[in-house]
Amino acid sequence: MARSLKKGPYIDQRLLEKMKKAKPGEAIKTWSRACTIIPEMIGFTFGVHNGKEFLPVKVTEEMVGHKFGEFAPTTKFSRHGGRMQRELEAKVAEKETEKIEEAK
Predict the structure, then answer these.
(1) pTM of the model
(2) Which in 1, 28, 41, 96 has the greatest CB count within 10 A?
(3) Long-range own/partner contacts, residues 23-30 (CB < 8 A, 24 or more apart)
């Protein structure tokens, strides 16, 4: 459910302070996944914590209004199993080996 319009978007004040102190090209670490991206953040690179590590997120214009957590997934997709999947992966591996042999 969306945050009330009268309250406005949630923006972590400590994150704004870190932005003011940040040097160009430096990643700003944050644990605040619920923080809304605002226009002042465009161009900065943030290290968003996913529970294990900090994933770099470079903020662009299209990201304004979204939350940091949307760009740092917390789960890793392994793959769907089954015979069909193994056959598809075998075909891809075969094509890659052909390309390597042609390059030699």
Answers:
(1) 0.72
(2) 41
(3) 27/54, 27/56, 29/54, 30/68
Q: In angstroms, what is the C-alpha Rg of the chain?
A: 20
- Would you call 17 helix, strand, or coil by DSSP? helix
Give the DSSP letter string of 2-36.
PPPTTT-----HHHHHHHHHPPTTPEEEE--TTPB
> pLDDT by residue (tens digit) across 65-101?
999 999 999 998 877 778 888 888 899 999 999 988 8
The correct answer on CATH 3.30.860.10 for the domain covering 13-78 is yes
Q: Whole-angstrom Cα distance, residue 1 to residue 15?
A: 24
Domain edges within the chain: 13-78
